[in-house]
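Preliminary data (for renewal application), 5-O-phosphono-beta-D-ribofuranosylamine complex.
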Amino acid sequence: MVETDIIQKEKAKNIVVLASGNGSNFQAIIDAVDRDEINAVISALISNNPDAYALKRASLHGIRTVLIKPADYETRDDYNNTLLKVLIEIDPHLIILAGYMLMLGKQIVHRFNGRIINIHPALLPSFKGAHGIKDAYEYGVKVTGVTVHYVDEEMDTGKIIAQEAVRIFNEDTLETLEERIHKVEHRLYPETIAELLNNKLRKKDRGI
Ligand code: GRF
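Predicted structure:
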């Protein structure tokens, strides 16, 4: 038993999470790691925002926090170069964006190509951008959802890894819809991360 545990731990992959805000998706990942549903070690939580509650969540779980504030840098490129250095030092198997509200610099996307993922609260390619839930709600679509995708140089355009639909009912308010979307996110993101780390995601024959 003990031996199996040790072997299991040795195999755990190193992941890093980037978050700018509340960090409820980050929390879902922490919980899934704690329950051994994700076989990984969260090496750091990186944030651009000193007020991000995600930083507090990391501290509460003894996870290293790295705060890199764009305002401390002359240009966005300088900021991204510093972030790149930190990421190279950590050398994560997977970089997980969880409500990270800035575009990652090209240098980071190139260096970690295929190892950066994001979660978006709509069915991409619909309702890209920072207000996916509200935009879908206000448009009046009857079905929206959640997308997990690879990150490329553009916003919300990378190859789709997983998607789940969420119906919008006539009696929904924006708040009830948000609640249901987040519930799906908190299940789908950890599940997808676990599958990616175990190489269990079936590669489809559409070049995806
Ligand atoms: C989530 O809805 C996620 O899809 C989007 O930003 C939100 C982050 O929420 N990218 P939280 O910080 O994880 O609570």
